[in-house]
Design a protein that fits this description.
By secondary structure, the chain is an alpha+beta fold. It is 25% helix and 25% strand. It has nine helices and twelve strands. The strands form two sheets. Strands 3-4-2-1-12-11 form a six-stranded mixed β-sheet. It has a six-stranded mixed β-sheet with strand order 5-6-7-8-10-9, with helices on one face. α2 links the parallel β1 and β2. The longest helix is centred in the first third of the chain and has 21 residues.
Length: 346
């Protein structure tokens, strides 16, 4: 349960009432659409591109937005977050709302024009998820005999390894280059192809699972890629670049609508490499449309004063800088492998 004590700092009674009503609607919607978290049996994994988090491009997010963002994140055990901007305040503020038992890992700022001064992060509940110590930003190697410098990722993918229950997970979260508004932008395709091949080739070396003897392979684990791939459609060549490298998108995620607000683009994805170990999809997954509950279209007049500070944008666009232009994508995995382990010991 998130920490609601900061509500008392909202001195305007009308604004405080609006936030409380929004939280109540979010809680009801999340309870209806997202499975309840368990102490030991399951892992709720999510990925969320939070637009310009928090650059202040159209005004820094108010406390209201942080209450809503934290309420949504609190329904999951481990969340990969893309588009965190250069300051750490947004992550620190979210953790304050989530509670002291939450923690985060975050990259440094990606420099360069195409990097947009972004960071990538993981937020996780330490009561359920352990960080195993492996964290790295991926860099493309230089091919043998190459005469030109390798064009690196616009934003370095972020790898980190965790344990939840019986399962070890190595996650690589990405924010792939967008480029042109076409389904097969050449640089976007190159980035996705290079990422998928690089991780597939080095999957064993990226494991954070226990290694019981020197020189021996680690205990079987799981390698997943997740985040904003800027894939327009699952039938596009950009999606095939992932599956051709040996990654699979669970069936339940292939059935969900797009993860943008209009739900007609499949920008965000979660896929695993080859097979899963002690990590079983339960059949439950989705995207959560928070705009059905907060910053709704019929609330436009309620925010006229805030919007007047930065005029010129429609309410539908303005609110994406309060929440996001992406919806969080999530999937539930079973993580209790005790029965299978005991049977294998006969």
């Amino acid at each position: 349960m998130p920490n609601y004590t900061d509500l008392k700092h909202i001195t305007d009674a009308g604004a405080r009432g609006r936030v409380i009503d929004g939280l109540l609607r979010l809680r009801e919607g999340l309870a209806a659409e997202v499975p309840a978290r368990s102490a030991t049996d399951s892992l709720l994994l999510a990925t969320w591109n939070i637009r310009e988090f928090d650059s202040g491009k159209y005004g820094f997010r108010p406390v209201e937005s942080y209450f809503y963002l934290a309420e949504i994140m609190s329904r999951f055990d481990l969340v990969a977050v893309q588009e965190v901007r250069d300051g750490l305040y947004p992550l620190q503020r979210i953790r304050r709302h989530l509670g002291s038992w939450w923690d985060f890992l975050v990259t440094d700022v990606t420099l360069g024009r195409s990097g947009n001064t972004e960071r990538m992060a993981y937020l996780f509940d330490r009561r359920k998820v352990d960080f195993t110590g492996l964290a790295a930003e991926l860099v493309l190697p230089e091919p043998a005999g190459a005469t030109d410098d390798v064009v690196q990722f616009a934003r370095s993918p972020y790898v980190a390894s965790f344990r939840a229950g019986w399962a070890y997970l190595t996650l690589a979260t990405v924010h792939i280059y967008y480029g042109t508004g076409t389904a097969d932008d050449p640089r976007r395709l190159r980035e996705i192809t290079a990422l998928a091949k690089l991780i597939a080739k080095n999957a064993r070396g990226l494991s954070g699972a226990p290694q019981y003897e020197p020189g021996q392979p680690p205990r079987p684990g799981n390698v997943l890629i997740l985040g904003d791939f800027n894939i327009f459609n699952r039938r596009d060549v950009t999606m095939r670049a992932i599956t051709d490298a040996g990654f699979l998108v669970p069936d339940e995620l292939q059935a969900v609508p797009g993860s943008n607000v209009a739900k007609d683009r499949h920008y965000d994805q979660i896929a695993y490499y080859e097979k899963l170990t002690a990590l079983q999809p339960t059949g439950r997954a989705g995207v959560f449309d928070f705009y059905r509950h907060v910053y709704t279209l019929d609330q436009e007049a309620d925010y006229a004063g805030e919007r007047a500070e930065r005029p010129g944008r429609s309410f539908k666009d303005w609110r994406t800088y309060r929440m996001s232009d992406h919806l969080p994508m999530w999937i539930e995995f079973g993580i209790d492998d005790g029965t299978q382990y005991l049977r294998a010991q006969r």
